[in-house]
Amino acid sequence: MVDILHKIRIHAPQEKVFESLTSQAGLAGWWTQDVKAQARLDAEIHFGFDAGKTVMRFRISELSPPDRVSWRCLDGDSQWKGTLIVFQLSQDGGSTVVHFAQQDWAQATSMFMHCNTKWAYFLLSLKSYCENGVGTPHPDDLKL
Amino acid sequence: MVDILHKIRIHAPQEKVFESLTSQAGLAGWWTQDVKAQARLDAEIHFGFDAGKTVMRFRISELSPPDRVSWRCLDGDSQWKGTLIVFQLSQDGGSTVVHFAQQDWAQATSMFMHCNTKWAYFLLSLKSYCENGVGTPHPDDLKL
């Protein structure tokens, strides 16, 4: 098993970052505009890509405001199915540090490498969205 | 041992990408402006950060134009020392695919997570430099 692991510093309050990771408007602002989400433990959340051709479904498996949220992937991509996405937040002075993980990939495939780079791209989008109000969510994302 | 692994597509000829990974002007265009490099097997190359407070030294351990270059880290950071950085290029239609690795980290520390995100940032800088002539090399990089 291998994990995607990132760390990024965001100059915004922890509550703002947490809200951006859990509300429909927040998630639409940095990951994908095609999202159905609610901030409730055990809720299903859906993220669409490529005009709905791909839909990633997750279940919210942890919801501990304003520190931690995690999602278990139910389906959408064979390599993503079963992986666990975790956002762990902490305050450091005036900024918020995000430790991100997508745990339990079966192998470090070329798709894993692509997704690792793309997660960094979307975390930079999250940073920009929280700091300036403007992210680069799909379908406006750079194709890598 | 854990590896940082990325993949990115660049809309530029493979020779242009390879030149950007091996020449002094190329490396200064996307990673750090403070660089001493030459494209010769076994040569030492130096990359400075934070006004010279940190200097990363590498030895070029593979140089196979236009497909592959690798550097072994000699010193500069205790967690980087001994790691191997590999850029593997391939042509795919009109674009170049870069598989990047920094191999043989002892552990997936918080520094590993930071560097993983930061490598993606600099690979996006490499992409922009090769495609548009403008990267975001240190010290003009975003602090993450």
Kindly describe this structure.
Two copies of one chain form a homodimer. Helices cover 26% and strands 39% of the residues of chain A. In chain A, strand 5 and strand 6 (84-92) form a beta hairpin. Chain A has one domain: START domain (Alpha-D-Glucose-1,6-Bisphosphate, Chain A, domain 4, 2-Layer Sandwich). A seven-stranded antiparallel beta sheet of chain A has the order 1-7-6-5-4-3-2. The first copy, chain A, is of the alpha+beta class and 144 residues long. Chain A contains three helices and seven strands; from the N terminus they run βααββββββα. Chain A has helices at 14-22, 24-28, 110-132, and strands at residues 2-10, 35-36, 44-49, 54-64, 68-75, 84-92, 95-105. Chain A starts with a strand and ends in a 12-residue tail after the last helix. Chains A and B meet through strand 1 and helix 3 of A and strand 1 and helix 3 of B.
